[in-house]
Design goal:
three-stranded antiparallel sheet, Preprotein translocase SecY subunit, two-stranded antiparallel sheet, mainly alpha, 20 helices, 448 residues
């Protein structure tokens, strides 16, 4: 592992890409500390401490996580990259259901650039809308709590906030594209991961305070709890890694064809079906739905609706049940959109491929759909469990959610997935230049 990391800096091109990615991520983290004009930082910090335990705390926690803590400081990057992620998911779903977009997606690089352009336009529109509501939310919440958060409330503050936060999101989107083009890994995913990883020092400090090794009288957690947490962390990361990489390989045999003097086909391959096709998208959809009542309740002063929203807040049994069912539903929903067994079977039939023991055509499509339905259930149940596991751990060990969030949930799933993808890209650069990669089993035999 260490030698592979050292080899990464022996290749000039790979070294340059890694340094460029790290430099651009540093720019993103610096921007997360530049405050938005017209905000009283001390009053804002006090406000977020108060709402962390209310029905808006869960919504704020999700937004703060994806912005890398910029939301709690109301910086120029407070909106984060979430508008771009939302537009990307919407465009991906629309591409699967709208024939014109589906045709555009099959045109190759030109079609991809056109769809990416639509995504950018949607990001700008969504950023303006979300930043405007954030400005109103901060004004109203600060006024109701009796805190002078906004120095000069009114349209001037709202327009400045909309311009600042929207520009910040567009700049982050540009940073992500530059990382992907000139750096290493997926730029947008690395930016999100950098924001999540930046919370590790705060979580470590909270753990230090809870254990209080030099003040046993102030200690709230026993040393054996730390051992349990360490074992759980290793087990959770290992399980997430295995499930993300898990595949069901469907064997495919291609018939031998003779064209002139050449023989084509006659080889065996397989179709890799991922256990979890949706990845983190199902959790993002589920969070958006379950946090919607809490969002509406913060604007509607109706006690009955607020009581219902409180039942769907983190920590209640109804929240865990509904959240898990939504994740399972969206796992199947997304898989049904992106996975088309009939198209796969027709392509196999067109090129003379077939699954051994299964007739080509419709029977093959039914078989692929049957297998996909069964393995998706396992992946969906695992995702649902990992999403609610931090809540269970928080109630069991009595630890803060910031610490428990590193044992599952959205943050861990994103971090593990992005790290695996980045390592694979670095691995490919190493193998192309005859260097041994991170895993010895992937070394190309016979090369010198």
């Amino acid at each position: 592992m260490i030698s592979a990391l050292l080899n990464s800096f022996k290749i000039p091109e790979l070294k340059k890409r890694i340094l460029v990615a790290l430099a651009l991520l540093a720019v993103y983290r610096i921007g997360s500390y530049i405050p938005t004009p017209g905000i009283n930082g001390a009053a804002l910090s006090e406000l977020f401490k108060r709402i962390s335990s209310t029905e808006g705390g869960a919504l704020f926690g999700i937004m703060n996580m994806f912005s890398g803590g910029a939301m709690s400081r109301m910086t120029i990057f407070a909106l984060g990259i979430m508008p771009y992620i939302s537009c990307s998911i919407i465009m991906q779903l629309l591409t699967a259901v709208i024939p014109a977009l589906e045709k555009l997606a099959k045109e190759g690089k030109a079609g991809y650039q056109k769809i990416n352009q639509f995504t950018r336009y949607g990001t700008v529109v969504l950023s303006v809308i979300q930043s405007y509501f954030i400005a109103i939310w901060v004004e109203n919440l600060g006024r109701s709590e009796g805190l002078g958060i906004v120095m000069l409330p009114g349209w001037s503050f709202r327009l400045i906030t909309v311009l600042t936060l929207s520009t910040g999101t567009i700049f982050i989107m540009w940073l992500g594209e530059q990382i992907q083009e000139h750096g290493i890994g997926n730029g947008i995913s690395l930016i999100i991961t950098a924001g999540i990883v930046s919370r590790i020092p705060s979580a470590g400090y909270q753990l230090w305070v809870l254990f209080s090794p030099y003040s046993p009288s102030k200690r709230t957690l026993e040393p054996y709890v730390f051992l349990i947490m360490a074992v759980l962390l290793v087990a959770v990361v290992l399980a997430v890694t295995m499930v993300i990489q898990a595949q069901r390989k469907i064997p495919v045999q291609y018939a031998r064809r003779v064209v002139g003097r050449k023989v084509y086909g006659g080889q065996s391959t397989y179709i890799p079906l991922k256990i979890d096709q949706s990845g983190i998208i199902a959790i993002i959809f589920a969070q958006s739905i379950i946090l919607f009542p809490a969002t509406i309740a913060s604007f509607i002063p109706y006690q009955g609706f607020r009581a219902f929203a409180n039942e769907l807040a983190r920590g209640h049994w109804l929240y865990s049940i509904v959240y898990s069912l939504l994740i399972i539903f969206f796992c199947y929903f997304y898989t049904a959109i992106v996975f088309n067994p009939l198209e796969i079977s027709e392509n196999m039939k067109k090129y003379g491929g077939f699954v051994p023991g299964i007739r080509p055509g419709k029977p093959t499509a039914e078989y692929l759909d049957y297998v996909m339905t069964r393995i998706t259930l396992a992946g969906a149940v695992f995702m649902a469990f990992m999403a609610v596991f931090p809540d269970l751990l928080m109630a069991w060990l009595n630890i803060p959610y910031l610490v428990a969030s590193f044992f599952g949930g959205t943050g861990l799933l994103i971090t593990v997935g992005v790290m695996l993808d980045t390592i694979k890209q670095i691995e490919s650069h190493l193998l192309m230049r005859n260097y041994e990669g991170f895993l010895k089993s992937t070394r190309i035999k016979g090369r010198r």
